[in-house]
Give the backbone structure.
Amino acid sequence: MGYMPRNITIVDNTFINASRCVPDPYHAGTAPSMLSVIGSAVVGPNTSPFGTVPEPFVRVAYHGAQNISIVNNTIDTWFRGAGVLLGEVSGGVVRGNTIARPPDVDAPAVDVSDSDSIRVEDNLLIGGWAAIEGDGEGSAAAVRVAKNTTGVEVAHNTLRQS
């Protein structure tokens, strides 16, 4: 697949009413989270021949990204999946963000799986979640950490009901 994204910082942005434009995959219609949409712009288009893969973009959240920092952003209202998805990431930080108004309580603000050395800290999480941290599907937690993940620190986050 080529070089994996390294040393990416997404800082001081505001994402409001983020849609996946489901009928049009060239507008990240198959993206599972805001990170995928953001990462599409950072990483660039998928170079596979047209029509051979369902995703038109190479995404940050797949295949071994390293040192991803998502800091001091606002994600306010999104319509599918997690607000931020870290999958197969080594060395990630999600810090100082405001993540608000999920599509439903089953959609976490931050979802971490198949990753190591991740810090989720000092975020304001506004939604109907029952707890800050949980594991697995259906946990209704704002930060979901899969059991196949190691070295994750979730600290000093604030949960507020919407």
User: Anything to note?
Assistant: Helices lie at 34-43. DSSP finds one helix and 14 strands in the chain. Confidence is low (pLDDT under 50) at residues 21-30, 36-46, 54-62.
